[in-house]
Amino acid sequence: AGGWSPLVSNKYQWLQIDLGERAEITAVATQGGYGSSDWVTSYLLMFSDSGRNWKQYRQEESIWAFSGNTNADSVVYYKLQHSIKARFLRFVPLDWNLNGRIGMRIEVYGCTYRSEVVGFDGKTCLIYTFNQKLMNALKDVISLKFKTMQSDGILLHREGKNGGHITLELTKGKLSLLINLGDIKTHPSNAQINITLGSLLDDQHWHSVLIEHFNSQVNFTVDKHTHHFHAKGEFSYLDLDYELSFGGMPVPGKSGTLSRRNFHGCFENIYYNEVNIIDLARRH
Predict the structure, then answer these.
(1) How far are the Cα atoms of 134, 145, 197, 257, 277 from residue 272, in angstroms, in the given order?
(2) How far apart are CA 33 and CA 97, in angstroms?
(3) I need a surface site. Which of 14, 79, 143, 211 has the fewest CB within 10 A?
(4) pLDDT at 130
(5) CATH fold of the domain at 117-283
(6) CB of 274 within 8 A of CB of 143?
(7) Could you give the residue range(s) of every CATH 2.60.120.200 domain in the chain?
(8) pTM assigned to the model
(9) In this predicted structure, what is the pLDDT of residue 166?
(10) DSSP letter string over 40-71?
């Protein structure tokens, strides 16, 4: 009664919470055990979608140890610097009151997380053909999240008119954005751009991708890391087909991609210029 207190107080204890469905967690609060000398002075926070693969909450690129309580009754509230999207949480005590035991009361704050998810089996792809009137010559934005156990696979492909193409591909757990302008004679200065970001992205956790194209400026973001580069003005999205392929290529080996393997895993919230692609696929 009065909170969670394991039989043995050591570094191997943790309290796991199942929220029932994925939620967006924005803050946590802790107290010690009611009417006791049991409280936790520092702890780690871990999260998971499945209850099997766990990730530690990080801040400023390092594992974050939360400052806990200094008595049994005061509430220590902590607003997360960046929200967590997960179904399961684990609170892992690191230190506790020397004159007592591990003791915790916990509150979690957040809201329901709405998302559109689609699964790919490594043999299929989702093709989105759009009206060329909707094309904006100056701006193109693609965003999505992905989760996979496979180290290789094509996430996104778009073909060009002269053999050029844009391909977003997972290779050995890293994400490569390959922009090929096609005709090397016409564009010798930057016929091919290959930017690689991230590592160990095949860890079965969600990773976010954002590709923004404004005039000749391209921003490529994976999780929180962004690479900015210029395509020197010759690169135009208007030379590309009005068709985007997610999860693979319609015709395998059509372009000189790295692995030529279709994606095997899940995509969440695919947006192309604010169009919700998964929702569109479900409705049509």
Answers:
(1) 11, 13, 21, 22, 7
(2) 11
(3) 79
(4) 78
(5) Jelly Rolls (2.60.120)
(6) no
(7) 117-283
(8) 0.79
(9) 86
(10) EEEEEEEEESSSSS-EE-EETTEEPPEE--SS
Return the ∠ at Cα 24 (arms to 147 and 96), rounded to 5°. Answer: 100
Q: How many whole angstroms separate alpha carbon 136 and alpha carbon 146?
A: 26
Q: How confident is the model at residue 8 (pLDDT cuts 50, 70, 90)?
A: very high
Q: How far apart are CA 197 and CA 261, in angstroms?
A: 19
pLDDT in tens, 266-277: 999 999 988 899
CA dihedral 248, 252, 254, 257 (to 10 degrees): 60
Which residue intervals of the chain bear CATH 2.60.120.260?
15-112
Alpha-carbon gap, residue 26 to 217, rounded angstroms: 33
Please tell me which of 65-74, 160-169, 233-242 the model is most confident about, judged by mean pLDDT.
Answer: 65-74
Mean pLDDT value across residues 3-9: 95
Q: Which residues have C-beta within 8 Å of that of residue 274, sequence separation ≥ 6?
A: 141
Q: Which of 116, 36, 107, 125 is nearest to 280 (CA)?
A: 116
Residues 6+ apart with CB under 8 A from 21: 87, 112
State which H helix or E strand residue 277 sits in: helix 277-283
Q: What is the mean pLDDT of the chain?
A: 87
Dig out the tokens for 150 from the structure.
Answer: 């496979």
The CATH H-level superfamily of 15-112 is Galactose-binding domain-like (2.60.120.260)
As a whole number of angstroms, the distance between CA 216 and CA 70 comes to: 55
First-to-last alpha carbon distance for the chain, in angstroms, is: 53
**pLDDT recorded at residue 102:** 97
Which one has a higher pLDDT value, 214 or 99? Answer: 99
- What's the number of CA atoms in the CB half-sphere (13 Å) around residue 220? 20
